Amino acid sequence: MPDSHIFTNLRWSREDVAALLALPFPELMYRAQTVHRENFDPARVQISTLLSIKTGGCPEDCGYCPQAAGVETGTKASRLMAVEAVLAEARAAKEKGAARFCMGAAWRSPKDHDLEHVCDMIEGVKALGLETCVTLGMLTAPQTARLKEAGLDYYNHNLDTSPEYYGKVITTRTYQDRLDTLANVRDAGINVCCGGIVGMGEDESDRAGLIATLANLPQPPESVPINALVAVEGTPLAKAEPIDAIDFVRVVAAARITMPKSYVRLSAGREAMSDEAQALCFLAGANSIFHGEKLLTTKNASVNHDEALFARLGIQPEA
Ligand code: SAM
Ligand code: DTB
Ligand code: SF4
Description:
The chain is α/β, with parallel strands linked by helices and 319 residues long. The protein has helices at 14-21, 25-39, 83-95, 112-127, 141-149, 163-169, 175-187, 204-215, 245-258, 275-283, 303-313, and strands spanning 44-54, 100-105, 131-135, 154-156, 191-193, 196-198, 223-228, 263-266, 288-290, 316-317.
């Protein structure tokens, strides 16, 4: 890959990952399941719940995102939520079986006084016995140290796509900016949650480039969200061709094989996915989902539907 010089120790070349994605499907699934069973109980899936703690009005121009200030999507912008309101949502999520509570803010990067409120939220959510995750945009080293001090377990910051396709989707910050934030998070001793989005018009080679970049980070992310684009009317990617379900499963399998010890999250896009496609994702090694009626601003698969799906598949939430 073009920027391979930044990695001292390439674990997976882009060609290796492209070859995985191109395997006959039964072979790919066999390899993914073998790796999955060596590292995880295949009948357990981790449950996370999302909450948008600050919605819309974001100065960035991510082409997929309904929260960018430059697009008219009908998403209502709001200020940072009050700590008590966030804790009420976290309590409800815990009652519905969530193990981790993820809070997202539509910021380019947090202001230090806002970060203090987020730290109060983290402390409160942790006190409820939930794991904490936040996604707040770019972070400096002192900001990651502050989050660590507040007890943050995971920071979500996605690479979104391959280094080559990235500039077609986002122009207001660079791939390197994202890698720098990820390095700050890692250095602070916070677990890294980092993945991407497929179905944005990228090709197979871009998918391979995303997975290879993730797998070659100095330490692979502990959690790897694979999102299928939720195409929102009004965003530049509203008319993107949806990814074929089998191709989506292939990306999940490649993530599983290349990052054997990471949780691979079947993230956005489940609402539009059949039960059968989701079942294949679990077989391919996905072992985490977002549970709850809403993602950040868009609809998620319903709670009742998920309960029925887990029952059909004999899958249990991870304790
Ligand atoms: N503003 C912060 C940032 O971008 O780092 C945090 C929130 S942002 C909404 C978190 C992630 O959600 C993005 O990196 C992107 O991967 C994902 N995302 C946003 N809109 C999406 C969509 N329409 N479909 C799928 N994933 C999406
Ligand atoms: C991630 O990879 N997916 C989540 C979470 N990290 C923050 C966000 C999905 C957002 C989908 C579009 C929306 O609801 O606004
Ligand atoms: Fe802003 Fe994050 Fe949406 Fe990009 S993905 S526009 S940074 S909220």
